Description:
single chain, seven-stranded mixed beta sheet
Amino acid sequence: MGEALAEVDRFAATMDAEAKRYWMLHRKRFEWVADFACRHAPESGDYRLLDVGNSFQTVLLKAALPYSQVDTLGFYDYRFSAGEGSRHFEMDLNDAYLEEKWPRLESEDAAYDLIVFAEVIEHLYTSPEQVFHFLKTLLRPSGRILVQTPNAAALKKRLRLLCGKNPYELIRLDRGNPGHFRELTVADLRGYAKRCGLQVEGVWMDSKLVDGKRFDRVCDRISRYLPAGLRGGISMSLRLG
């Protein structure tokens, strides 16, 4: 993993200041996702991954698993390609309620062992129930969906609310990057999984962001010693029921 991270560090160094900051902010989270993918990779044979929302994470997944098939779905960003042979499905996930807009796979062999659905669900105004029903159609029978999203009930958000401050940002004017429409709790995600016929394989609570705001950093450190439900981020592995 160290070599793959170093490779993406060098790649990030060629980007603009905003992209560099994004890489450093999310680097620990990207590393955790890539490590999860590596731990669940078969010792031999075909391993197919779908990254929802291509970004630095896509590049790291391919660097960590060079012999795997890494495809992407969502709005394409030309800067973050998984390389030659990868496939991109252009789709606005808010259209997941329209089955005629779902990308179709050529065969069962083209389905995925792992779908990485990280830091996307909170940006959608369409119900996650619709989105999960769609993503299920792209999974192999033994496949997984790895969901990552901020914890709506994190300590730092509770403290802000206690002080009379809204812990959630306002919707932005930029339709391409509107911000977070709705943040979720573990219970919310479990409820969606159950209604969609998905089993919760594992839940991990932690803040893997390197946030520059002192208040957030302090809260994240304190939350490590408190009940897991107060931590900043949720990672959840889902499998077909």
